[in-house]
Design brief:
With 479 residues, this protein is mainly beta. The protein contains one helix and 38 strands. A hairpin with a 6-residue loop joins β6 and β7.
């Protein structure tokens, strides 16, 4: 779950009344079939989830679902027209026989403002050729996003903010509300019923909520709750946004991204248990972790402050330097990483707010995957900026600076000059960019020639290549 959602969820007043009925019936379903079309690029650059099903790598983005079976050489992208719900991907679960995805989007509520909403769930039993879509379980989809999905035998478990923990034994036709404790199901009253993460390890079910970590060994009939206040060696915080499992050399570790909830003694960190949750060891203090992946003894953690690697069960850590494409020199301009996975072939995949990357050597070298609108000799627009509008304080933050890309095409490998002007056509910044033959991105950090962040307003940029007509574009800077 993303950090901005965390702060909003913990601080907002509840504008919804959540039902406490034991079972909610889905109102409608849809079946979709499409013709497979492959592409060279993923569908979006904000990569929220990555799951490997044994044959295919599934990647969730803010623009839809992507699949590759050849380590990213080609991609198949899915969106609402294929049977995926509206919005970006908020969760993925996959086995060798079925894949489930959930989506989310923003909606405008009269007299309230903009709130997040669940776009429902979709599943496929044939690798994405056909999809069945299910509307968001619950009384309403507003403030009811599914953040995680897990499959235990034939039962599908989902965790949703407003909808809590639910399970379905009939492929989403009906859903049953599950309270991970002895109380009557009521997400409005009980923090432990506001669910965010779910993990299946063998026959054991682990659920992370705003009230701690819950474990069930009998399919959700009975539960044991672990929280910051009820153990001698507790989790760091009760807001549990991600769970992971690592097994190597006889060690069985449960990893949890544990964030501060209501108690002032709580703090954000990663909590690790080797005794089924009865005690926890704390590591990566101060880090907001989003997800985990494991390659035997190697653990990877993606956080708001970078990508981390441990070889000793989280005792010591190495943080990765900026990810750079080994062939093109393209860089990831971000500190925020949301998703991570490792395939059986030991290929490491990481998703960020600025694209997807993979490494087949443990992170020493990388290949970056990003999407863009290509520029050709036939396109009227010769250059454009993205994101646009651009916020130097919020977009593509790396080492405390924001970054925006100026996309253009070059007919050859050469040196390009980028000039940026304010609305009065006063020169603000000049820098050079090493252009490759083909599609290019020149990156600006939102600063002028004196190293100061420019003021809000409209700016024009010009890209000059010797022997070519200058390429002009416009960008809005807005904090």
């Amino acid at each position: 779950m993303k950090k901005n959602n965390y702060y909003w969820l913990m601080g907002c007043s509840w504008v919804l009344i959540f039902a406490t009925v034991a079972q909610s019936q889905i109102l409608e379903k849809g079946f979709f079939n499409f013709n497979t079309v492959s592409t060279e690029r993923i569908s979006g650059n904000s990569v929220t989830d990555i799951v490997f099903d044994g044959q295919n790598l599934w990647v969730g983005t803010g623009a839809g679902l992507c699949k590759t079976s050849d380590e990213g050489n080609t991609w198949i992208n899915f969106d609402v027209s294929d049977g995926i719900g509206r919005g970006g991907i908020s969760a993925i679960a996959a086995t060798d026989s079925i894949v489930w995805v959930a989506t989310a989007y923003d909606t405008l509520i009269p007299n309230v403002g903009r709130l997040s909403a669940g776009g429902g769930l979709s599943y496929s039993t044939d690798g994405g050729q056909d999809w069945t879509h299910i509307t968001q379980p619950g009384v309403t989809n507003v403030q009811n996003i599914t953040y995680d999905i897990a499959i235990l035998d034939s039962t599908v478990w989902i965790t949703s903010w407003g909808g809590g923990l639910k399970k379905s034994d009939d492929q989403g036709k009906t859903w049953i509300d599950v309270a991970p404790d002895s109380f009557f199901f009521d997400p409005y009253r009980h923090l432990n019923h506001r669910a965010f993460s779910v993990l299946v390890v063998g026959k054991t079910l682990w659920v992370g909520t705003a009230g701690g970590i819950n474990r069930s060994t009998d399919g959700g009939k009975t539960w044991t709750n672990f929280r910051h206040q009820n153990q001698e060696q507790p989790i760091s915080g009760n807001f549990v946004v991600a769970l992971g499992h690592q097994n190597y050399q006889g060690r069985n570790l449960i990893w949890a991204a544990t964030i501060e909830a209501e108690d002032p003694d709580e703090f954000r960190a990663v909590s690790i248990s080797e005794d089924e949750g009865y005690s926890w060891r704390i590591t990566l203090r101060g880090k907001f972790a989003h997800n985990f992946a494991f390659d035997d003894s190697v653990a990877y953690v993606v956080t708001d402050n970078g990508l981390f690697k441990s070889l000793d069960g989280g005792e010591t850590w190495t943080d990765f330097p900026q990810i750079i494409d080994r062939e093109t020199g393209q860089k990831m301009w971000t500190n925020e990483f949301y998703s991570v996975a490792v395939t059986p072939e030991h290929v490491l995949w990481v998703g960020s707010s600025d694209g997807l990357a993979c490494s087949n050597d443990g992170g020493d070298t990388w290949k970056i995957f990003r999407t863009y609108q290509p520029i050709t000799p036939k396109t009227a627009v010769k250059t454009y900026a993205y994101p646009n509008p651009f916020s130097p304080m919020r977009h593509n933050i790396y080492q405390n600076n924001g970054h925006v890309r100026f996309h253009y095409a070059s007919p050859r490998t050469t040196q390009a000059t980028v000039k940026i002007y304010d609305f009065g056509m006063n020169l603000v910044r000049t820098f050079t960019h090493s252009a490759q033959n083909g599609q290019n991105d020149a990156v600006w950090d939102g600063k002028n020639n004196e190293g100061e962040t420019v003021a809000n307003g409209v700016y024009f940029f010009k890209i000059e290549i010797s022997g070519q007509e200058p390429m002009w574009g416009k960008i809005i800077v807005m904090d």
